[in-house]
Model the fold of this input.
Amino acid sequence: MNPVTDIYRRLHAATRREPLLPVLLVLLLALSVTYHGFASVTNFRNIAVQASPLIIAAVGMTYVIMTAGIDLSVGSMLFLAAAIESSHPVVGLPTAAVFAVICATGVGMGLVNGLAVALTRVPALIVTLATMQVFRGAGGHITGQQNINLPANLRGIGTGSLLGAPTPILLAAAVALSGGFVFSRSTFGRYIQAVGSSADAAVNAGLPTRRVIAGAYALAGLLAAVASLTETARLGTVQPSIGQGYELTVITAVVLGGTSLFGGRGSIGGAVLGALILTTVQTGLVFSGTSPYVFDIVRGGVLLAAVLAAGARWRNLAQAAGLVSRLVTRGTDGPTA
Amino acid sequence: MPDGELTVASQAPAIAVANVSKSFGGITAVDSVSFVVSSGEVVALAGENGAGKSTIKNIISGTLRPDSGQVSFGGAPAAEGVGGAKHSGVATVHQETSLFPDLTVAENILIDRLRAPGRATVQPGRLRRAAAPVLRRVGAGFGPEMVVRDLSAGQRQLVEIAKALAADPRAIVFDEPTASLNLAERELIMRIVEQLRADGVAVLYISHYLEEIARLSQRVVVMRDGHVVADRPTSELDRGTLESLMVGRELAQGYPTLPRPGNTRRLSVRDLGDGGRVSGVSFDIAEGEIFGLAGLMGSGRTEVARAIFGLAGNIGHIEVNGGRLRRGSVRACIAAGMAFVTEDRRHEGLFLDRPIRESLSIVALDSVRRYRRTGWLDNGCERRMTEDLASKVHLVARGGLGADGGSLSGGNQQKIVLGKWLVSPPRVIILDEPTRGIDVGAKAEIHRLLVGLAQAGSSILLISSEMEEVLGLSHRIGVMHDGRLAGVLDRSQATQETVIRLATGGSQ
Amino acid sequence: MEGSATEPSTASGAGIARPARLAWLRDPARRPGWFADLAMLPALILLILVLSVLTDGLLTSSNLINVLSQSAVVGIAAIGATFVILTGGIDLSTGSVIGASGVAGAWIITSTGNLAAGIAAGLVTGTVIGLVTGVIVATLNVVPFAVTLAALYVVSGCTTLLSHGRTIAPMPAGFISFSIDGPGGVPYAVWLAGVLYVIAQTVLTRTAWGRRVVHVGANVDVARISGVDVVRTRTSAYLVAGLFSAIAGMTLTSGLAGAGASMGSPLLLNIVGAVVLGGTSLSGGRGSLLRTGIGVLFLGFLSNGMSLLGLQDYDQQMVTGSFIFLAASADGLLRWRR
Amino acid sequence: MTEHHRKKPKGVIVRTSGVAWCVTMVAAASLGLVACSSSANSGSAGGGSTAGKKYTIGVSFDLLNAIRQAEKSSIQSAAQAAGYSVVFDVADQDAQKQASQIQDLIQTQKVNAVIVIAQDGQQIAASASLAKAHKVPFLAIDRSIADQQDVTFQITGDPVADGKAVASQFLAAKTRPLKVLELVGGLTDQNAIGRRDGFNAALAGQPGVTIVSQVPTDWNPTEALNGTSNALQKDPAINAIYIPSDFLLPSVQSALTAAGRLAPIGNPKHVFMVTIDGDQNGCKAMQAKTLDADIATPVADFGKQAIAAITSARGGKAVTPKAVEAKGLILDQANYAATSGQVWGCASS
Done:
């Protein structure tokens, strides 16, 4: 087996597992060709740094969506963690202590979601819709809606660099790798997919479904806090508008990555690639200098394309085309047909 | 009858149920049930649907807590929850497969032992190596790396049994393991049960098939309406008494006499296929004729039925009453007067959490309109239509037609799935395993209904894995083998042997 | 678990076995369907009582009219959202459609000065967006959450692009009066919302289409096999949602005497929250417009009461969030406890 | 036959409403608690309508951030001085919510005057005419209202003028040619549109000053940070940035430090920056000489002149001039020592 075919085989296996890999490469290539400033190490480093918080939050969200749940409160958790980080007693602590406190807060917030979803039969969408407003309100209470600047040591996480690479990238890479490892190689990861795949079978098999679900949301809370650490460190200040609408961006990245919203099927690698693609598109738009209004349209279009590609099986598409034409010819005869 | 005297082990019985009771929302499901299963013994648990067999199974397996009474394994009282049963070596094979569609076969089988003791992580390779021998033991023809979503119903049942055997338990509870299996696979399961008994494992075998009970069990526990009505050695019970014990009244023996079929061709199918394994199937059904479709599990019978009704691939040419049918659309089939009774009544038959009235009136909803063109519904007319349908199929609904579909027993649910098509007499009725998993009494009623419909002129396509039922009810029997129609036998030539020969690929 | 209704021992005799002891409240068969829909009414009444004690001036007629007119827009859009949720889907794009239809209508009104043409344009815009979303969800069998999320971005982006982010104003006096004055001091918009609720509830319970919407949500396979045109029912549900969002958009434009691209986006949370608060189940197949109406009023009185209490902005968010969870868990707690 | 596990509950009506009843009781109790605690610290009379007692002013802001807090305290201090009490609402950038809140203030809480920062200049017209109908003075600060007829008094910044003022700073800049990165606030926010259009109009056709890229931020600090670093990456020759509001300044500063371009004036790598509003960050940046100019919003005037207008309106006198356009106070390196005292950001820092 000469090395070339070996590399080709492994690449082929990788693309079969992660269909998004070629899409990202083609996108980067196209942008590098069209815009001269794009194809430079600093730019790729920039994209990676900007994508890091999204990657970290997307890994947590993938675990939640894998259990056939959803977490709308990730944006508000980001803000509350930042608020607590900038609040009086915590901001004075040494960096390691702050890091520990914020991670503990994250797990606490995640557990609030997890226990509510696991113990009561309230659908995850509603639990997190409620906690989204509760966390946002709590954060506002703590910061009193002021802009609070962070001391230098806390900003180090965002702007410092370790072993030559910016810390956010290292953090994101660590979270992605450990997330993937835990998912495929730990019983918790297997149980997550099992619970999402069929809740009844999980009860029958005696799996600790409630603990698994609570664990998934706790993990999502922890990663939201870690994402908040990197995000606020880069921003330098804590402001009331942090994390607003962030949950929709994170969900877009996870759905782009091929994770099914019905639960059971998905991949951590997909979420990471989804986040990178979204950030690359955002950067590409700045480079292309198109009018600012177009940003939302492009983001919606990318999500729609990903969903159509993943959701519709091609046979189904042909059948759908036939149906649509028949639907149109017969004319929609209104609701009282 | 199993030979050799009973070697009942001396020490405490493997499974002991001591006057267990359980009720749901005021209605008692089981009331002070007691019996024991010692190791090295197969105890059959028989009873009509709704007699409480599944409740007992769930209590033993730990998914349900009894209101009163006690379950103990090998003398020690059962711990709380599903884990309790597992720790004391009791495995359960559920009838509704409890598998994870998105996980691999190996992960499903070893779901509660994913990590080897002392190892920190899960090794997929080790899982596959551990699962392969168990799969071979149940004779599964597929590998441990397959994803369960891609397996057929029969294959999933084999994985379910392999999962129970993997824990090499001291006692196993089988809940109708052979319901969706064909003859060859059923034979394999029975041999496994006999092997388990020889190895000293205690087996509680829940089944509707009286011949299986007769062959496998030493003792039979018969339940009716939540009580144990008999707990006697199998040798003392012949088929007739067993049936009457279960139903509590005399059962009309045999099948109703068949009317003479008409000669005008009602349904003609030409080289039908679903784009997959099934192809080239052609047959005709005359007016008032019952055409049975037999064959091994996975031979494509369900696919044929679904292809005709537009639910699966649309290759081939179908004519109803001479009119060509536009393929691939359920609504066109219904417009042409066809009806389809689905195999999986709980998920495709009726609404479990909507009133029964809505499940009954859904097909003919347009005929219940008050004013011709508008969509307005006339409640009074709908109530009259549904009550007349319910009486036509002898539906017994304790809470009236407003109660939810889920509150009914299996037999009554099946009557609804059939009843909703009978507003106007259908020209063609396709039935896919109409009497699977329902009790003897309800089964007889459905047989009478089918024959009545045939008399009224509808032509019926009956698919059933129960050889006795297909032979008893059909004018002609088509036998499927590996996706092809192996042959069509007339009622006179059709016997169990000839059908089996065709079903297993032999010549006519 | 055995079916709770064990078959009576003697299965003799056809026909419906009359339930033995008939407590009118306990027997679901005899109780009219809409009674169960009032599950959240005691909660609403209690909330109003508590708020009227804590603040004064809540129960004055002018404040009651204010609450109704303030809840009219969310109420009308919630009708469409209810139909979509009943089919088992969800429509995140309702906020953007409110903005889009408002801007389209306002643009036609200001450029041509013809009120009727403007309103028609707004309604057509919303309905077309609903149809496109519905076709994608129904025919390509794609997850509604993701499709409507994409629609949210695309629609708001296009509206902002076409209107260059500017608010289109002023509106003709006749159009503004639609949401201010009306018979008995109650604005026409509130009467419109009330009439729409009555029509929608009747259509849902008394027409074949309404029955089919619920059946597609309860169990799509049973519906498909029983001859329900699942694709058309789902598509028409999103079309109706688009229409109601458009009506809400025009009402909001008249209320604010101008239309802005992002005027609708903050309303999405209230619309979905109100539908769920009322008790319509997110998995589809269970719910009604009566429940949604109660949910809308609940949120309306809650936010009105809190602003009268002078609660800080972030405290209001916390209270609203906990109320949505508590009301939803009232139903959930029941199932969990059993 | 195993039963479907998640069986629909035997939802007997008595039990459902029973649970709903007790759950709402708990929630109502918590609401009462929050209400008491919050009314204690918001200073306004505890929810009771203010008939007969102190003259009450109802205030409705579009959102709550640093500059709004400053405006809130300026109103509160001026009102305290004049003996008025203040009831305070925030509309979370939702025009309809703002209209509802103003309706509640006027009709239910029966406030004697209303001060508003409008989420949208045109869409606030309905509330203004409501106030006029109830003969309640309707004042607007910071953001102008399009249709003046129902407004008693208005003291606003002038976004277009602020944009022009920033442009004049760019024209006065010594380094040539200026390649400008223009950050845009909310795409649908009339204030941001005014500041952008004023700036673009003033720079149109000017030699030596070109806007190389426009980056939308939707008033979101993260998008400002990422947008700036991407723009710097795309066009390293950028040597001037227009920041429509100070609260985005920290993000731009982080992006510049990451690109190694944050340097005080005089250092060749210095990027010419001008911003608006004059908050604490702006003032600090002026001291550190990394910021070239800041068009400070006269927050203190807003509070004082609004309360003064109310007092005169209360006395029956017509308020003249009806609309005051308080141009931004230009604070640049030259007049820093003299004017920094009047800038609200520097006063409190």
Q: What stands out?
A: Confidence is low (pLDDT under 50) at residues 313-318, 330-337 of chain A. The longest helix of chain A spans residues 209-235. Chain A touches chain D at residues 35, 37-38, 40, 42-43, 46, 49-50, 121, 140, 144-147, 149, 155, 158-159, 200, 203, 231, 234-237, 239-242, 244, 279, 282-283, 286-287, 289, 291-293, 295 (CB under 8 Å). The beta strands of chain A are 148-149, 161-162, 165-166, 237-238.
